[in-house]
Amino acid sequence: MSQQFNPFLGLLGTSPSETPIPEDSPITITSVPVQVDEETEIVNNIVENVFYFTINVNAVENRPNNEKQLVYLEELAEATKPRIHIDFEALEQALFERLLLQDVESNVIPKGTKVYKEHVIEKHVFLYLFNSLQNLQSYNNSKNMVEKRAVSKMRELIFRNAVTALKQPALFEDQDFSSQLLGLLQHADPLSQSFFTDIVNALVSDCDNESQAQLKATMNEVLQKINTEVKKSNLINLPNYILPSVHLFASNPHLAPILMEESEPKVENNGRLYQDSVIGALLSLSVLPRTALSLHEFFEQPMDQAANSLIETSIWNALSHLNNNMQRIFLGLLKCGPAMRNRLLTWTGKCLSANVARGKLWSVQAGEISAATLNCVSDGFMLNLGAVLLQLCMPFCASPDDPKLLKIDPTYGAVPPEECASKSVHLDSLHNETCLLPPREDENGQSIKRPTAETYSFVTECFFVTQKCIDLGVRVCAEKLWQCGRELGQAQRALADAGTAPRLLEALRTRTHHLMTRFVSLRCALLEKNMLTNLHRLQAATCTWLVQVAIRTDLDTPLSNYAPMTLLPVEMPITTPAPDTLRCIPEFVLENIVVLITMARRTAGATTEEADIAGLLQPALTLVLTFMGDSSRTYNPHLRARLAECLEAMLPNHPDNQQPLSSLASFYREQLFKEHPHRSQLVPCLLDVFVGIEMTGQSVQFEQKFNYRRPMYLVMEFLWGLEEHRESFSQLAREAESNMEAVHPPIFLRFVNLLMNDAIFLLDEALGNMAQIRTMQTAQQSGAWRNLPVHEREQNFSNLSHIGMLARFDNILGRDTIRMLVRLTAHAPHVFCHPTLVDRIASMLNYFLLNLVGPNKKNLKVKDMKEYEFDPASTVLDICRMYVELGNNERFCNAVSDDGRSYSPQLFTLAETVLVRIGGGFLISTLREVAERVRLLAEQKQRDEEILANAPDEFLDPIMSTIMLDPVVLPSSRTTVDRTTIARHLLSDQSDPFNRSPLSMDQVKSDTELKERIHSWIAEAKKNSSQSTSTKN
Questions:
Q1: Annotated pathway, please (predicted)?
Q2: Is 336 exposed, middle or buried (0-12, 13-18, 19+ CB in 10 A)?
Q3: What is the C-alpha radius of gyration for the chain, rounded to an integer number of angstroms?
Q4: DSSP 227
């Protein structure tokens, strides 16, 4: 290197202009003895041990057994002759020359070295500087003042050169600084991260825009490399350095803004883009696929339970590690100051808002590939984000009655978007969510603005953001799990029924394997223990908070804060008006609790004894009793019905349980129903929501309605077994008996009416399906299907499987409904024998008894009746029990005999024959007594019908075509019907059957004039008949 271009001349205090030397002039070196003091020698030794360079060409000679290698800085040695030691003055020049040195190996002494030590010939600037810093560590504890000063000076030089390299990368050709910095983060030595951080701090200490820009450019490249590495990895093989490295960025005030900017998508309303950043890529690590088009990476043999168990354990450990570290990253960002906290909350809020499509009903039902799955983040992303947010919630929900949770303001979701910024609301999409109660309306039908606070705390925001994330993550995945389970069951049944068609068998096996892999993956993702534990804690606290909000009353003046703040005692039934704050709480807050509790029962491993005892069930039952039976606090009847599912999930062991609870857990749950302070409200609340599903005025599909009622039957069956709750049923029945003619029919009366509606529909459907199955099985067994084309044969198998599924559904629910009717007829026979109900119960029993014991019963005999849950013997016994219970009532016996469609004197004889065969002999003698009473009344009825056969049309009920005994006029349609007919109609539908106008019994008017004419005509007809009979005799 010529002196003209030597960068060290300026550092030495000499410039080319001061000492011009022609390029071709020889340099004369004069040897001058140099006195070396002790300090210089000490510094030189440290330099050789730390930086591995020297200006003494003989530095490693004359040292026996010395394997030391050094880099000889020839140009600096020439410039500093006759000195052969590096002192403080020359060190900066020496270090800079070493960093710029290209051919390091050719400058290593001793000459002739064949194997170079890696740390000696390191060419990468940052790795070399880090190695030097590591070497310097050995002098940290030195007491020698010269050494201490040397260490300080050398440390300063190391960072000064690191900053110079970042600011002037052009000086260092072919060096990729982002890869070198990433190498520091990958280094096993803990000192590497502090070195990385110190470089950042040293660079920004200059406080100039150029330094900031260079830092951002370099660190963006580092983050891109980390992002690429994450996307190449999976949950199990993620490199160890990545999570600590991202945490380093998050916790450093200079790097956190760079990390956040890298995480913020350019199109903020595109949900899928939130997965593309480093944070998004980490949150996407899961047992579930990253995209809708990706394959499952785990559970290659999903049928192998032993292998599944080992894989689950590994995945849960990895998930726990990931989410714990992601929580540290989020916490680091939150602690980086108000601006960064606001930025993270904004990112989280916009991420959730951009991915709301995930939570739509159509999205869950659309399958694995849909618009939502292609345009939104993955299931794993949302589950992991929820797990992180749950950890952030733990400080205020450590227990169900944690006083800090009462600081949550329920009006957060009512803030309109234009006010969000001023009120510190970052999740601005909640304003459009359906809430527990709809907004009030003014006289013009316009919504009245809901109450909102002046501003909202972090606790409030963290709570609602977490609940929304649970709604889009846990709830969606739980519903996908249950749907996948149903599809898997159908596929397995179809596989069993597929026969020997090779093409069909292979397709079904492939589908079954795929569904099983998906099922165990979803289950594994949902059952990570730490997330579940935190979820239980949050929702136990949420139960308490919701009840505390619900029992408050509105004040006359607006408030600055609507949080409950204090814990009030709960008294039931709640008689105060519902507060307007319930018009601000999104339904998903309550729905999330339902999902967790029902998931615990539907999914093996989703709950533990510890979770039960930890306190979720007690506040959850209080929550259910507060909202389930009270439409003034929960407008949506479907959501109230879902709360009944919570009750079913809280039950102790049930005979149908596939995964029974432990004895301790079952005992604890039984005590819940025996000792809960508000348990007396259970039965009234259940009946209220049972009836409410029918009385909504909304279109409720039959299948959905019965899905809602199925868990209610199980709860009622359990409560019936507890004397205290059985007495509640009896008390409601007695109230119904005393108020049968009330303006608003008693809840028990409406309940019984709907039970009969359900029984008629379900048993009729079940019998029709069983007859179809018999026809199809007969054709299959006869060999008729074998002669069909392949696609027709496959279609037949599919139809048989589908009809079998429907039959099983109808048989199970029909059985439960009939059993409930058996219990109620035994305890409240007078209700069933009231004129409003008696004809329907009698005709129902006659119809189904005839189908089950009559000549057509052979049409119901199918192969594998247990598979379809078809138990006709049990149903016959239940029907006969009801005949016996009600048979002492003359009105009932009259109704049985009046049923011209199904009743005949032979009906009970056929029943006796079947009872003998199925073990029902104990009912035969009593049933004969009922049959005799019915026969005598039937004969009398026949005589009366002959007498009244020619009644005028105006005397006949327009609906039933029978003589009206108590005619009434409907106010809007002006139609005259029998009182009993319209009363029966209003139990199910409170509207005029002729024009659908709202109607209640207090609005109908007796037609006394017509009533007198009818009864006069009947008396005259009977008198004439009697005289005619006497004359004939």
A1: Protein modification; protein ubiquitination
A2: buried
A3: 42
A4: H
